[in-house]
Queue: 3 jobs
Job 1
Amino acid sequence: MAEPMSELRLDPFTRRWVVTGKRHVLPDVHDYGDACPFCPGNERMTPPAIRESRDPTGAWTARVFHDRAPLFRVEGDADRRAEGMFDLMNPIGAHEIVVETPAHGKTLTQLSDSQTANVLELFRDRILDLKKDRRLRYVSVFKHQHPPSPALAGHAHSQVLGSPVLPYILEIELRWSREHFRKHERCLHCDALEQELSQGTRLVDRTEDFVAFCPFGSRWSYELWIVPARHASSFENDMAAPGRTLALAPFLKSCLHRVESISPSVHMVIHTEPNLQAWKPAEDWWKFVPEDYHWHIEIQPDVEGRRMYLGPEGFHFNPIPAEQAAVVLRALDPELEPIPET
Ligand SMILES: [Zn+2]
Ligand SMILES: [Zn+2]
Ligand SMILES: [Zn+2]
């Protein structure tokens, strides 16, 4: 008997969406044992590429393909439905892997600026492409980086999730950004940025274009955020301006490098505006998002026992206040190892 398809269920008590049920494994992918599927020469071990960037010799420098056990799938339709008082739908969408370099064992911080800019370009491309699908309300781009190992985890990569619902944290961020805007007619992030710049105690680094600081209410020890200095709600549209990815690349690498010095296990996520073109029940749902939301990157090191800090009672416990974390992160030498162009 065929396995039942996984479902997207809404927990009505917290209004969180949960993908439940067995993930479908793509039929044309086999297990190749210990070989790294992300290394050049092993492309047959992954689903076919959706996008590739290539160097002048024709060799790929970054590749995007579907995850072999996707959380969200393109086929079918959302089929929003009820089961008594409960809401559910099909987990339609996309789940893609971005391999950021052909070099095994290198992290994003070890790539050249132009290669990092290239990866940011690919993120932008995937977000814009998936947002053409009006069934999808959000596209997440994130990275779970673990200490280098001979296996897959050691190969720099990120994940892209296109989903018919908003991730919980985005839902919350959008709600409070809108609330702040409604009261003050100003962007919450722009206001916070102004205060961070004037107080300075939580600032870690800044350029003309970007600011990095430890947020006042840091949930994780040594959490570091990168925020564009000028208001912009959409990462993908902001990065379209000439030279923008090349401006962000060295800044992102140096921020990641500081956090990697605390722990080689790092979680990174880009928070950008939802898909404003998506189908939604009311046209004015996200009317003020371009003014009230501000894209940013959150970087969180997985310090020892980090998971213990979130108790089952739902509070975050962070033993290191943001001001103290900022002192440590500021002092870390941001100089990167010179790596030749790949
Ligand atoms: Zn590899
Ligand atoms: Zn703003
Ligand atoms: Zn955020």
Job 2
Amino acid sequence: MGIFAYEDKKRTKKISTNEASELNRSKYYFCLNPYCDAELKVTSVDGEQKIHFRGGSKTGTRKEHIDNC
Ligand SMILES: [Zn+2]
């Protein structure tokens, strides 16, 4: 899980969870790894964890991280 991601697919605008949390939680963000096409969403698990960017089926994103990312 990460606290930073890119707001745009071209990876020009980095955004933190603090900033992203004020935006629409259904919006997709993009992985910091330039080789990884994962789409991330802002999420917190049952409110017990700090919000973070997460990809994969549990958050309903369309693309997961590549291996070792
Ligand atoms: Zn990734």
Job 3
Amino acid sequence: MHLGYREEDEAFRTELRRWLAANLPPPEKLREPKRSSAHLPDWARQWQRRLFDEGWLVPGWPPELGGRMATPVQQMIYFEEMAAGEIPRSLNPQGLSIVTPSIVEFGTEDQKERWALPTLRAELTWCLGMSEPGAGSDLAGLSTRAVLDGDHFVVNGQKVWTSGAHHADWCLCFVRTDTEVPKHRGISALIVDMRSAGITCRPLPELTDPQAADFNEVFFSDVAVPAENLLGAPGDGWRITQGSLAHERGMLWIDNAQKVRRGLDALFEMARRPGPDGSSPSSDPVFRDRAARLAVDAQAMVLLGYRGFAKFARGQASPEHLMLKLFSSEVERRLYLEGVEALGPDALDTTLPGPPLWKEGSWAFQYLRSFAGTIAGGTSEIQRNIIAERILGLPRS
Ligand SMILES: Cc1cc2nc3c(=O)[nH]c(=O)nc-3n(C[C@H](O)[C@H](O)[C@H](O)COP(=O)(O)OP(=O)(O)OC[C@H]3O[C@@H](n4cnc5c(N)ncnc54)[C@H](O)[C@@H]3O)c2cc1C
């Protein structure tokens, strides 16, 4: 049996590598700290625009949408190469990978022209208004109201944890438009201009860096939104959230697998350094055992990803993607915990070896940050419930 890529797929990889070598922004730009997940500095706008113009932004899409009709295998090669080089496609990932596919799938031709294309060309940035103080895991319980009044909706309510809201131009906002039907069916998706009168953003300081907020509380007070900004039909909101989150999960595993690979390399490098008494974590049998387990998990993650991908490429359902969101975020959290435990107080030292493009901080910082992956896009507990019910067929909790 020959396990490998076909000639045309290797040619695709070579062409991509050549293009990246000739066009990639300088490393100091790629390492620049981000102001938020909806802030695009000039270099990032130009970079995304170049990717779009040359069909490297969403390779599986047609050229008019920034792609080149790449096959599923070629798309996987693309994501592997980008993740291996830690190359961002956009500094507004929710705009590119969640909002745009939702508009392409559910929007009218006008909406695609007005919002999807400019977003692909890095002219617009987005935030996602899903979570509320009383509706996170139970998203269907959201209570921000939108009432149709003539040719516009009037929106009142509050969102929270809205990444990049203070820099975003637009918000894909999930609102309750019908209180008479079961809660999943009364939700609609509205495209809201973040500069509308009545919107207030309050950035929330974060555990990992109180100075650099990405999260926001967003308050809506009698915000007028034109009726034509409704995405899909009234009541389509739940279907769109499921699509949006699937887009988010679909893209995650390759990136996560690479992050874990780099984290492991850094863990092994750090573990070889002798401490003050001359011994190093790598000679501790307990550390070695745990590190070996992490290495096995990292490899299992990649194989699970390939298995899911093989099904996806054959047009079959691939429940592996649900498992990978849970597995990869939990492995990443364990990995940084291992580093923190091995280092003790030195885990706060920002000069110790970390992954190659490690921009901020220490092992302790990365450990705190690794919790984000176990919460964003659905917490680990909720993923376990979904796996139990949808994959294992267990009764509802
Ligand atoms: C980095 C990051 C970025 C984010 N960006 C955005 C964004 O841009 N826009 C947006 O709308 N939201 C965003 N979020 C919010 C995220 O979607 C929510 O935090 C997440 O859905 C959990 O909701 P919650 O915080 O309200 O927790 P809750 O739902 O209140 O849950 C609290 C705890 O209870 C557990 N729990 C709840 N229900 C169950 C159950 N049925 N069974 C077992 N355990 C349960 C949860 O697992 C969790 O541990 C972001 C979060 C993070 C971490």
